[in-house]
Amino acid sequence: MTTRQRSISSNTDPPVRREVVLGVDTHGEMHVAAVTSPLGKVLGNESFPATAAGYRQLLVWARKRGTVRRAGVEGTGTFGAGLSRYLVTQQIQVFEVNRPDRSARRLLGKSDPLDAQAAARAVLSGRARAQAKSGDGPVHSARIYKLAKDSAVKARTQAINQLKAVLVIADPALRERLSTLGNAELFRTCATLSPPDGGGDEDAVAQATHMTLRMLAERIEQLSGQINELNQRLTRLVERYAPQLLVPVGIGPDSAATLLITMGDNPERLNTEASFAALCGVSPIEYSSGRRCTRRLNYGGDRQANAALHRIVFTRLRHDPRTRAYYERRTQEGKTRREIIRCLKRYAAREVFNLVRPVSRAPAL
């Protein structure tokens, strides 16, 4: 090829588009986006509505400034969930970005464009390394079911406490009749109470007491039915998506669902079992200074996942001979109970990760 031919060929080749990084500060009704160059220069800021059409407009606007392959989004599990799912479908790697630290805000101030720019720079610098959950499969369905179940459990506990508080100040005859009953029988009996007849002040108090006990008992029964239905749905979901989690000792459907929710529908975003342990708050934290070399508990991470691992460990201490033998051996070595529990939770996190991580994504329910 001659020099003239090479010159003509170079003039006809399409220009190579530069890569840019997208950062988004999310809100309930409006998202603020910023695009930066690989060197951190701000190429533009713009606001878009938090709607499906707004997501498309945001990405079109960002792609006019270059090729978008990475994006940092605040609140990928709340206000930014819809946008994150849309960006993932567009083959864009989405990273969860924490809000800027206070020292940076004191120096630079606080505004939505500044937060969006900080999100993009967090991706560029590597500070934002946690990939967002896809939220488009059965694990997200489990998250919704678990949310409804936790709310129902909290409401039922409150109703039970209120019913027993009313019994404390109820008429002595009624209180003595109901005080010997177990919870199940107590709720059934209260649900059948009928207000006494009469029109005096004492009868009015008795009527209010009977009606309140009946309504609280009916509420408890209704919430119990909802909890049972949600438990069945969660169990079926775990049995279909990750039945291998139910094989080891101590892992029930509720704990399995909680840990699956922490991992997300795309567990491949977690590169190592150490990253999953840190996500669950069971990785030891270096706490050394001078000649003292020690570690402390990790108080961060997903506390619900941490509680699920805690339940697994204590169930195994009661029913698993291997776990009891490990506990006794480490006790003889001088380890405290707290240190041994921490180690066992770390081992449980490793086991769960190795059971779930190799599994390919299941079809949506």
The amount of beta strand, in percent, is: 5-15%
How are the strands ordered across the major sheet?
3-2-1-4-5
Element order: H for helix, E for strand: HEEEHEHEHHHHHHHHEEHHH
Give the CATH topology of the largest domain: Nucleotidyltransferase, domain 5
Tell me the Rg in angstroms.
28 Å
Q: What's the main sheet like?
A: 5 strands, mixed
Amino- and carboxy-terminal Cα gap: 58 Å
> Helical proportion?
55-70%
Uncertain regions spanning at least 5 consecutive residues: 359-365
CATH superfamily of the largest domain: ATPase, nucleotide binding domain
CATH class category label of the largest domain: Alpha Beta
The average pLDDT score comes to: 85
Supply the helix-strand structural class: alpha/beta
CATH architecture verdict of the largest domain: 2-Layer Sandwich
**Shape assignment:** globular
Number of helices: 14
State the domain count. Answer: 3
Coiled coil: 213-240
Organism: Streptomyces longwoodensis
GO molecular function: DNA binding; transposase activity
Domain Transposase IS110-like N-terminal: 22-168
